[in-house]
Structures are given as structure tokens and as C-alpha cells.
Specification:
This protein is α/β, with parallel strands linked by helices and about 240 residues long. It contains 9 helices and 15 strands. The protein has helices at about 10-15, 20-30, 65-75, 105-110, 130-135, 150-165, 175-180, 210, 215-225, and strands spanning about 1-10, 30-40, 50, 60-65, 80, 85, 90-105, 115-120, 125-130, 140, 180, 185-190, 195-200, 205, 225-230. The strands form 5 sheets. Strands 2-1-8-7-10 form a 5-stranded parallel β-sheet, with helices on both faces. Strands 3-4-9 form a 3-stranded mixed β-sheet. It has a 3-stranded antiparallel β-sheet with strand order 11-12-15. The protein is elongated.
Length: about 240
């Protein structure tokens, strides 16, 4: 079982996502466990302040290191390793979502699937104090070269990619073995009934004849031609 911890100021964004479909079944089967922490619960003042103005000036607000330290410490046991705070268990990953992080891919998903606990630092506003990245996080990850409003969506995307690799979450083990390899996962174009779809007179959208042939060699050749191995990109 993998424990996913989400630390965020918007827990209501995260919670519903894991209460439906295969996630719900995986939780019921105790294949995954979800915990969500509200960062504001770890603030020190009555206003539950989690951010402040950036040193050096600039737009927006920066999320405070002391609040994040308390929240992460609640989720995992930490120890001092030199000047840094690290989880006692090597099977624990503390992921800070940031556009400056390493690009997430399928190889990283496979590595993370070996963990017992994954903690997501879901920042907002102008960002998170860099001392969290330097001294608390074990990973800095980006899901793409674009800007988002917060780390919740990237965290949920990573959790889904990792969860798919846990035996029993999406079905039979043979499915994962056939779809995933050391260089990523293979994705091909797919068709289903009807064989010919006619949305209007004179328009016929047909299924490729190779997929209807019943010949495994022809089907495999077509899928290889119209597919792509994904996830073996730079890391």
C-alpha cells in the first residue's frame, strides 16, 4: 500500500478526486491511502497566516517555511541530516511541485511506485520559500513547461500515474506487463464498434481493415505503426 499525503490550503480541491471510480475501489481494497492536510492548521497566529511578502520585493506572496516545516513534520517523521531535514524512512518521498523541478515522466512514476509514502507540497501564490526545497523536500518535480495556479493538479496527476502501477488498482497484472516496459509505456490508436460510423449522408468513418482482419501479426504491425512509446524522455 502507498500512502499519499497532500498538504494544501485548498483540501476541498483534492478530496473529491479520490472518492470516485478506480481510486475509490483502490482505497476500499487498501491498495492506496489518502490523507489531506490543511496547511493553515499549522499557522501560528489567529488569522492562520501561511504567506508573507517576498524579500527583495516583487509581486505576490510567498508561502512561509516554518508553516511547511510543521505540516511536513506532522505527515512524516523527520531527522536532521547535516543541515537538512529528511524523512527517517528511505521509502518516503517529499515532493515539492515547482516549474523549476525535473520533468515528470513514466520512469519517475515507476521509481515513485516503489515508495511507501509520498508527501506532496502543493504551493500557491507566488510560490514556496526556497528553504523548503533546499532542506525539506526530497524531490522537486514539474509536470510541464507551463504555469498553473497551484500544485494540487500536478500532485493529483502524479498520484494517478503512480497508482496505475500498483498491482490491482486498474485490473489484471498482465495489462501492466503488456503496456509498460523499461523505456516507458506504449500507447496506440484505438477503435471500437460500430465498424463504420456515418454521422451524415455520404460520410463514413471506417475502422482500419487491419484491426478487423483477425490476424495478430497484421494487428500488431498496425498498432506499432500508429503508436508511440511514451515516458522515456529526459529525467
Amino acid at each position: 500500500m502507498i500512502l499519499f499525503d497532500f498538504i494544501t490550503i485548498f483540501p476541498e480541491i483534492v478530496a473529491p478526486y479520490f472518492e470516485e471510480s478506480l481510486f475509490k475501489k483502490a482505497r476500499e481494497k487498501k491498495l492506496i491511502k489518502i490523507r489531506i492536510y490543511n496547511l493553515r492548521d499549522f499557522a501560528q497566529d489567529k488569522h492562520r497566516t501561511v504567506d508573507d511578502k517576498p524579500f527583495g520585493g516583487g509581486f505576490g506572496m510567498v508561502m512561509k517555511v516554518d508553516v511547511w516545516r510543521k505540516a511536513v513534520a506532522k505527515a512524516v517523521k523527520l531527522k536532521i541530516a547535516g543541515k537538512k531535514l529528511k524523512p527517517q524512512n528511505k521509502d518516503t518521498a517529499i515532493i515539492m511541485l515547482t516549474p523549476r523541478g525535473k520533468q515528470f515522466n513514466q520512469k519517475m512514476a515507476r521509481n515513485l511506485a516503489k515508495m511507501k509514502q509520498i508527501v506532496f507540497v502543493c504551493g500557491r501564490y507566488e510560490g514556496v520559500d526556497e528553504r523548503v526545497a533546499q532542506n525539506i523536500a526530497t524531490h522537486q518535480i514539474s509536470v510541464g513547461d507551463y504555469d498553473l495556479m497551484g500544485g494540487e493538479l500536478p500532485a493529483m496527476a502524479i498520484a494517478e500515474a503512480v497508482s496505475r502501477l500498483i498491482p490491482g488498482v486498474i485490473g489484471k497484472p498482465e495489462f501492466l506487463a503488456a503496456r509498460h516496459g523499461k523505456d516507458g509505456f506504449f500507447e496506440s490508436a484505438q477503435y471500437t464498434r460500430p465498424e463504420i460510423y456515418s454521422p451524415a449522408k455520404g460520410i463514413n468513418w471506417k475502422t482500419p481493415k487491419e484491426l478487423l482482419s483477425g490476424d495478430p501479426k497484421k494487428i500488431n504491425a498496425w498498432r506499432q505503426k500508429h503508436g508511440k512509446t511514451i515516458g522515456a524522455a529526459r529525467q
